[in-house]
Structures are given as C-alpha cells and as structure tokens.
C-alpha cells in the first residue's frame, strides 16, 4: 500500500481508538488489518482493562485473510503477558507480513513488540501519524513516562486572583457555562483531589453532574488529602462515588498511591494551600483557570505562597487555549518544567 493508503488506514485506526474509554489504566488503541491486496479485513479497538487488545480483536475479525497482509496499529504492539497475551506474538501467529504503528510504547513492561516482530521476519514501520496518536493518549503517556498521574490544577477566580470574597463567600464566582465545562473536564479524570479544608469549608460533592445537578455517567475517584477527620454527613462520603482519604500532606505520596491504583489523570480542585503544595513540588502539568470578569480587591488568593521571591523565579506557564464561556474566560496552560539539574 502506498503512503496515502497507509495514512488512510492509520486514520481509520485512530478513529477506532477514540471509541475506547478515555479514563482507563490502559491506553486507547485502534487497529486495522488489510489483506495482501490492501482490502480492510479486520478492525478492532481496546474497550478497557481486561478486554481483548485492538490487534487481537482485528485479527479475530480478519481470520485467515490477515496472512500476508498489513496491520495498522496506533500504538506499538505490546510484548508482554498481562490479563491478555502479547499482541506481537498474535500478529506473528496470524502470518501478518507488515506492521505499521504510530506511537512507540513508552511503558517499560510492554515495550519491545517491534523488535519481536522484526526478529520473526515481519516488516515493521513506526511513527506514522505519531502526533495524533500521542495526543489521543496524552495523560496515559505522561503517566507511564513520569511514573505518576498527570496533574491538572483547576481553579475559579476573579481577574484580580481571588478565589472568594473577604467574607468567605465564593458561590458562584463563575457562571453556569463555566461550571458545566468543569463537569465535562472533571469526567475525563480518574480522580478529583481536594484537601480537608475544602471539604470542611464548602462540603462539595466532587461528582460529575448534568444540568439537573444529578450525578451522571462514570464518576472519578474522590480523594481528600489531609489528616483532619471528615464529618460523617459530608457529601463527599455519600454513595454517589467512591471516596479515598489520604492522611498526608505530601503530594508525591498522594500521586504514588493513585498511580498504583491505575489513575492516569488527577483533577486537582483543592484550595490555595493544596494547590501551592503541588505547584511548589513541581507536580502540576496543566492549569485550567476559569476567570470571572470581576474585581474584589480583597479575599483569599487562588494560590498560597509558593516561596517565590522575585519575578525571575516565577513559575512559567505556556498558554494553549483561551475560550469564552458565557461571561467568563477559560484559560488552559501547561507548566514549563526546568530541565533536570537546572
């Protein structure tokens, strides 16, 4: 198949991958198998942890027609045995002559499929539409590379950086459009994290809710960080979602526990103190700020002291998106981490 045909098949595999669950310990992967004449004979995608991998599903659909054909896979075929067997061996057993994949597998335990395929005489090509494939699994890739979940800090504040008025009132700084957007993005996270102070002050539900304010769809794990006991009637302890309290103030310990549970994205919604702890530790990867066209002049700041004494030491952010939501602005920005050893 020519380059145009290769790209067409890989785009079809990417579209299949996008059907997989966005929140899962495993990546979203799609596969398309063509016969020696270039006709599509099998399609598959990974439907979540414990289910057949995309390649296996596509090969099962293709049957004997896969022999001598090409497999297009959005992620390098795995080379390890977990809940399912290695996809590299399945492709070899099916008699596939050529494998084209997009993203190299960054996971140490699963990588190596390309080498196994080449050793078996299969023609292997990697890197086709790699940017699109990596973007599809941004949080998973970041988590397995860094050994911790990707952390997104969300806050709502005024244009002068206040999270509440001087009397403590904070509902609602932003409008309904911004709040609906928070629920949409919260649903993409494996866990939503706050401190005990937020629970005691605001009694939040921390669930994903629809327009009628009723919990809807898959719910992220609710995580409360801090040593103080929670009131028995706190809404975060209701049956709407699972809740985990971590009696620590150490952000690295929090992320280690969540990573061990297969959490790939953390939605950090804590108050100024918890946000400052994660930021000061260099453990925030993206900031999602909802800014109301309001000035207060006094009241709690959106983030506590970061220990930065000069402009030269300021934490740098790279803006990636600015969107108007009703009367408010949503600004998304990634943190700029200094090089190791700097």
From TrEMBL:
List the cofactors. Zn(2+)
Q: Which controlled-vocabulary keywords does the entry list?
A: Hydrolase, Metal-binding, Multifunctional enzyme, NADP, Oxidoreductase, Riboflavin biosynthesis, Zinc
Q: Residue limits of the CMP/dCMP-type deaminase domain?
A: 4-125
Sites binding NADP(+) sit at 156, 172, 198, 202, 271-277
Q: Which residues bind substrate?
A: 170, 186, 206, 209, 269
Q: State the free-text cofactor note.
A: Binds 1 zinc ion.
Q: What is its EC number?
A: 3.5.4.26, 1.1.1.193
Catalysis performed (reactions): 2,5-diamino-6-hydroxy-4-(5-phosphoribosylamino)-pyrimidine + H2O + H(+) = 5-amino-6-(5-phospho-D-ribosylamino)uracil + NH4(+); 5-amino-6-(5-phospho-D-ribitylamino)uracil + NADP(+) = 5-amino-6-(5-phospho-D-ribosylamino)uracil + NADPH + H(+)
Keyword Cell membrane attributed: no
Q: Gene3D superfamilies, from UniProt? A: Cytidine Deaminase, domain 2 (3.40.140.10), Dihydrofolate Reductase, subunit A (3.40.430.10)
The entry marks the following residues as binding Zn(2+), namely 53, 78, 87
Query: What InterPro entries does this protein's entry cite?
Result: APOBEC/CMP_deaminase_Zn-bd, CMP_dCMP_dom, Cytidine_deaminase-like, DHFR-like_dom_sf, Eubact_RibD, RibDG_C, Riboflavin_Biosynth_HTPR
Task: Give the domain of life.
Answer: Bacteria
Q: In which pathway does it act?
A: Cofactor biosynthesis; riboflavin biosynthesis; 5-amino-6-(D-ribitylamino)uracil from GTP: step 3/4; Cofactor biosynthesis; riboflavin biosynthesis; 5-amino-6-(D-ribitylamino)uracil from GTP: step 2/4
Q: Which family does it belong to?
A: In the N-terminal section; belongs to the cytidine and deoxycytidylate deaminase family.
Q: What does this protein do?
A: Converts 2,5-diamino-6-(ribosylamino)-4(3h)-pyrimidinone 5'-phosphate into 5-amino-6-(ribosylamino)-2,4(1h,3h)-pyrimidinedione 5'-phosphate.
The protein's name: Riboflavin biosynthesis protein RibD
This protein's gene is called ribD
